[in-house]
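Re: your question about GNAT family N-acetyltransferase

S., sorry for the slow reply, the queue was backed up all week. Below is exactly what I fed in.
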Amino acid sequence: MTATLRPAEASDIDAICTLLHTHMNPEYPVERWKRLFAAPWCAESPDMGIVAEDAGRIVGFHGHVCSHRPIGSRRERFLNFTSWYLLKEYRGQGLGRAMIEMATADPDVTYTVISLSPKRLDFFKKMGLDVLDTERLLWRKDGHEFENLELIHDPEVMMTRANPDEVKVLKDHLGLAVTPVLVSTRCTQCLLLLSIAAKGNNVTYYDVLYRSNPGLFTDRAPDIAQALLPEGDCVLAADRRFVEKVGDGAEVEAIPSPRFYKSSRIKPRNVDLAYSEIVLLGQKLD
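Result:
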């Protein structure tokens, strides 16, 4: 059996989603898979991914979630990889490697892999992707007192108080599987996008996908946890690169599946987890 690779097109979406539902994860209905192709920020220069096709039949897919992000004074293009699957009878022919080579061909794009099977770690390293993070930091509610910190949860209020970059991020993610919180002090503020989910150890994680102000988040993470978290077994969690230094009170935990990235333009501290498959598919963050 021989398959060829080509960019995915809008007319492929139904076949791709059927493939992913039938063979990759039947727990996700077709309609949920279709969310990958409905990102509200992807209308400009969309890149849906790569399909493997044999005699008109789609037998594999390597998905891309594209976005353009302001990094300093530059506008940078990101591709988050998602939903990489090949039918078993097409494996072992080099198609998977060819998909990654095709996907990472543009040196001006920053590529990210957020959810990854541990079986593929060595493969991605060999393909030239670097480890983005292997650890995250945890903060718990410990009862300490704090001042000069307000958490705003109402999106309408956030829209009036956020800066223009924060407003765009907030609008892009409204209605998706994230919880926005605007952290405000007398001098500055920080927009957080959170993914909230109970994980295998029955601890509820408030995972930080995005923070607009790394300095404020670094300085006030323990206070944010104290103000944000409910009583019970809960943690505020953030990949290590999300802070500028590890302060007192932070626990360190290994990430089960390390994050990967490839970029000649962006430093790891500027690579977050927003604009990704996590928010489109409503996935738990490993």
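The longest strand covers residues 57-71. The CA atoms of residues 38 and 123 lie 29 Å apart.

Happy to talk it through on Thursday.
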